[in-house]
TrEMBL record:
Coiled coil: none annotated. The lineage of its organism: Bacteria, Pseudomonadati, Bacteroidota, Flavobacteriia, Flavobacteriales. Keywords: Kinase, Transferase. It holds the Pfam family HATPase_c. PANTHER family: SENSOR HISTIDINE KINASE YPDA (PTHR34220). The keyword Kinase applies. This is Two-component sensor kinase yesM. It comes from Kordia algicida OT-1. GO terms for molecular function: phosphorelay sensor kinase activity.
Length: 218
């Protein structure tokens, strides 16, 4: 492919990233309103509106600041947590060497949201009513690559790769393709890896999705 063709291909992949969760969130908010939770519902709508504006802005760009990507991710997580029966806990851990450079570190827009969505809606699905769900995002640097992992404490992967792609709002193949394009096809390692975490006896401890993104700082 020529560089122009790759650019057009990348733009097409980006345009698919408007998260479908917004429809589900609106339906949940409508249900909340019918139950009389008006003030809470207004709060949710305000946050959803802010999130949507950020999403619309970000998907018009080839790359955005890591700080903005994390802001979108945090808003999305907190909205989902509030709509998630008894909720869940979450933490975002950022490498000390990156904390001062989040505004200058570039990543593809909404590269994390589909993986976070999978972790919440599928990984933590069985914990909706006990409030024991845990979500963790870690951002580190390894050999000129950003290494970002999303980990949940659910039951691990219970679907085939094909089923996982089909059940995702955005195909995992989309994420992998975008990473390949910005990486120039140079990496020998997997750029997107989704795996079940297990203890020494083989019992599933959760699911971990890890991305390798070229470290681009401007």
């Amino acid at each position: 492919m020529s560089s122009n063709e790759l650019s057009l291909r990348y733009d097409l992949l980006n345009s698919q990233m408007n998260p479908h969760f917004i429809n589900n969130a609106i339906q949940s908010i409508c249900n909340s309103i019918t139950k009389g939770n008006v003030n809470q519902s207004i709060n949710w709508l305000n946050r959803l509106s802010h999130l949507y504006r950020l999403v619309q802005k970000s998907t018009k760009c080839k790359m955005i600041d890591l700080q903005e990507e994390l802001e979108i991710s945090t808003l999305y997580i907190e909205l989902q947590r509030d709509l998630f029966d008894k909720g869940f806990s979450y933490v975002i851990k950022i490498d000390e060497s990156l904390k001062e450079d989040l505004e200058h570190t570039k990543v593809p827009p909404l590269i994390l949201q589909p993986l976070i969505e999978n972790a919440i809606l599928h990984g933590l699905k069985r914990m909706k009513q006990n409030g024991k769900g845990e979500l963790q995002i870690t951002v580190t640097v390894e050999k000129e690559m950003l290494y970002i992992c999303i980990t949940d404490n659910g039951n691990g992967i219970t679907k085939t790769e094909k089923e996982l792609n089909e059940s995702s709002g955005i195909s995992l193949e989309n994420i992998n393709e975008r990473l390949k394009i910005i990486n120039g096809g140079k990496s020998e390692k997997k750029l997107l890896e989704v795996r079940t975490l297990k203890n020494d006896t083989g019992i599933a401890l959760g699911t971990q999705s890890c991305l390798r993104i070229p470290l681009i700082q401007i």
